[in-house]
Structure formats: structure tokens, C-alpha cells
Amino acid sequence: MNHFELRDGELWCEGVRLSEIAEQAGTPVYVYSSATLRRHLGVFRDAVSAYPDRLGTPLIAYALKANSNLSVLQTLAEAGSGADTVSEGEIRRALKAGVPAGRIVFSGVGKSDREMAFALDAGVFQINVESEPELERLARVAREKGVTAPFAIRVNPGVGAGGHAKITTGGITDKFGVTAEEAMRLYAEASRTAGLKPQGLACHIGSQISDLTPLRRAFTILRGLVEALRADGLEVTTLDLGGGLGVPYFNQPDPPGPEDFAAMAAEVAGGLDVQYVFEPGRMIVANAGVLLSRVIHIHRRPDGGRRFLVLDAAMNDLMRPALYDAFHDLRPVKPRTDGERETYDVVGPVCETGDTFTRERDLPRFEPGDLVAFMSAGAYGAVMGSEYNTRPLAPEVLVRDDRWAVVRSRPTYEEMFAAEPKAPWL
Ligand code: LLP
Fold first, then answer.
1. Which of 85, 190, 296, 303 could tie 90 with a disulfide, CB 3.0–4.6 Å?
2. Which pLDDT value is given to residue 18?
3. Could you read off the pLDDT of 45-100 as tens digits, one per residue?
4. Are 346 and 330 a contacting pair, CB within 8 Å?
5. Whether residue 63 has its Cβ less than 6 Å from ligand 1
6. Is the pTM of this model over 0.90?
7. Residue 285 Cβ < 6 Å to ligand 1
């Protein structure tokens, strides 16, 4: 459920007309609903908190990579969210938005020494280590600082899942994590290594997962590992079960709900007397955001050929269709009442064919100047934007009730060029 609704013949976000935002902030523009953000965090928290005897009080470490806008983060932090981060920049964002360091997890396959040092200084809850060389470096960085690094080992269970090959992370050919055997060995070695405090295991097998079966297999493997480590006399106090739960996109299988996910997690991996951690990203923010764009014109090939709906948003604003063949629902902000429909190829102004949002989609008829909303664009939308073709980054707007604010401004061309000082010999 989200808070983008049709009322009085047009789309609203909570108590604000999307057309008002488009007129004042310009297009393309991302718009987020505070109520949907809070609702989705609440739904997930309620689901995983429904098994206190099995999952205790889990730490929900929202995966910032999905949408790291500071005001979005602060909205979630005020609602009690922790943070899963993958760079110094993301840790800085989480801290700035008010997430306590003790609720921050630091993940990622290639943390630099500097980033590890930053995370240790900040006092994050846990560093999820993904390989042996990384663990060796973490030990060295911690020793140089005279501290002990609390870490979990990310296990690659050899079970990949997700909406596209490029967002599957748990397969053995994927770069993430170590095998179960390596995890056992590294954990034991680390327990005898100065500077390291092994506290648990982690996994994350993919994103936009629409089936619980692979998650069940992965969690079963993790559970077995926790039990095996304990049988070897090692202490395990945390278990991070990752994120990955899908959301309903246009023309995609409906994903399982958070309740079914939580019931499965409790059944398969619950009751281990650990601090459970979850890292949801997409399911918290995807349906809390839309990308608003305006139709520039409609270009029609003669003799019944293709009809191109040319928008002012492009692949640089929303990469997902170009990168993952993703489909976003497209809705008119002010639907016409005549019920007429057309078949369009929906494209942006960027100069490559990859800048195609969808082909031959049956849609309500549009005219130049009409506003279009890309639905479910709150996750992996603005964060993946670029200035390709020297197009300014789309601004971001946050709505709360009947108020709205620009929470990331569209850069001016002067601001864009200021980051490119002229070479002294020119
Ligand atoms: N934890 C880790 C370690 C991750 O790598 C990810 C996402 C998450 C949590 C959050 O997963 P989620 O709940 O959002 O599925 N840009 C792609 C998605 C990439 C996901 C990468 N990892 C897209 O637009 O579909």
C-alpha cells in the first residue's frame, strides 16, 4: 500500500497534488511519501517482531543504497530504523541523519583501509566481512588503532536469487561472501586473532526476490553454520539475514509479503538466541517514491510504425529499465476521461537506444505537456542517477501530509561545471 492516490481527477501524494510539485520544482523530479516510508518500515518491523521467542527484537538495518537521501533517512531514523551501509559516504549519511552508530552495519566486498578505520572510529555495530584478505586487513587496521573490530562473516551459500542476473548475489560465481567451509575456518582463526571480535554470520542472496524457496535454503545453511560454530566452542551472538524481498513492479510476479517472509525466517533460522539483523532496502522505499516526468512530444513513424512517447526523464534519471530490463508502471498524473488508449515506446532524450523505458506498452493516450508518473521509483532511482549527456540530476521532493520540500535540489549548470576546474595549461 502506498500514499499515491487518484483524487479529484489527478494523482496526489498524501495531501499534495503531484501537478503542483511538477509545476514548482520542474521535471523530471522524484517525489517521496513520508507516510509510505513509515508504513513500510512499520509493516516490516511488525512482521519480524511477531516472533519474540524466535527472532527476539531484530535490528532493522535499512539498506541505504536503495535511497540515501538525507531527509528520507532521517524520516526512517526517527521511526527507529538502523542502517546497512556500504561505503564511508553511506556511514556518514546514516550518522548525519541521526542513525545511532550502534545500529549501523557496514557491508560490501571492497572496503578500503580508510573506510574500515572510519567505521571503527564511528563505533558501528558490525562490519560484515566478505573475504579472507579483507579480514586480514580489518585485523591490521584495528590493531593499528588499538581497538577490536566487531565483525560478522558474510557467507555465500551458493544459492542465488533475484529479479535479474545482475542483482543476484548469493551464487557461487558471484563476488560476494565466502563459502561455508571458509566461514568456519576464518571464524575460528579470527577468534584467536588480536584486533578481531567475531560475533556472527551474515548473508544476502539477491534483490527483488519473488520466491521464498532460495531464502529458505540459504537460511537453513546459515542456521547449520551457527550450530556448527557453537559445537566447536565458538561464540555467535548475531545473525544477519540480509534484505532482498521484492516489491510488485509492472508485469512482475507478486513477491511474498513480509509476514510470510518473517514466518519462514522464524521457522528456519529462529530460536538461536542471537541478535537478528535484517537489511531491507527496496521494500521500504520502492513504492514510497515516483519519478515525475513531462511528455516533450510524440514522434510517430509513418504508415502505422512505432509511436515514441518522448519524455523529459531519461536513463540517467532512472537507470533500472536500461540496466535490468525493469518495468515501472506508468500513470498519467491527470488521466483523461475519454478512455482513449495508444501503444507507445516510451523513451527519454538521451542519445542511445538503451534510453528506452518500455516498448509497445498499451497506455492511456498522452499529449505533449502531460505529466507521467513512473511508479515504484523510490528504490534504486535517484541514487543511481548520473549527469550523462550533461543533464542535471533530477531533484528530490519529500512530502509529509499537506507539506512538501525539495530535499535535494537540481544543480545549476554553474554548480555542475564548478567541480571541473580547468587544467592549468589550458
Ligand atoms: N544488503 C546487502 C548486502 C545488499 O547488497 C543489498 C542490495 C541489500 C541489503 C538490500 O537489498 P533489497 O532489500 O533492496 O533487495 N540496483 C538494483 C538493486 C541492487 C541491490 C544490491 N544489493 C535494482 O535497481 O534493482
1. 85
2. 98
3. 999 999 999 999 999 999 999 999 999 999 999 999 999 999 999 999 999 999 99
4. yes
5. yes
6. yes
7. no
Q: Taking Cα atoms as reference points, which of 364, 374, 369 lies closest to residue 336?
A: 364
Q: Which atom of ligand 1 is nearest to the CA of 108?
A: 3
Q: How far is the CA of 243 from the centre of ligand 1 (A)?
A: 7
pLDDT digits (tens, 9 = 90+) for 99-121: 999 999 999 999 999 999 999 99
Pocket test for ligand 1, best of 174, 204, 324 (most atoms within 8 A of CB): 204
Q: What is the pLDDT of residue 165?
A: 85
Within 10 Å of residue 279's Cβ, how many Cβ atoms? 27
Q: Is 281 in the pocket of ligand 1 (CB under 6 A)?
A: yes
User: What cell numbers appear for 118 in the block?
Assistant: 572510519
Q: State which ligand 1 atom lies nearest to the alpha carbon of 320.
A: 24
Active site residues: 351
Q: Which of 168-172, 320-324, 391-395 has the lowest mean pLDDT?
A: 168-172
Residue ranges of domains in the chain, CATH in brackets: 4-31+286-418 (2.40.37.10), 35-283 (3.20.20.10)
- Ligand 1, atom 8: closest residue by C-alpha: 243
Summarised one tens digit per residue, pLDDT across range 207-248 is: 999 999 999 999 999 999 999 999 999 999 999 999 999 999
Q: By the 8 A CB rule, do 73 and 64 touch?
A: yes
Q: Is 84 in the pocket of ligand 1 (CB under 6 A)?
A: yes
Which of 81-85, 252-256, 294-298, 372-376 has the least mean pLDDT? 252-256
CA 283 to ligand 1 centroid distance, Å:
10
Cβ of 249 below 6 Å from ligand 1? no
Ligand 1, atom 5, residue with closest C-alpha = 204
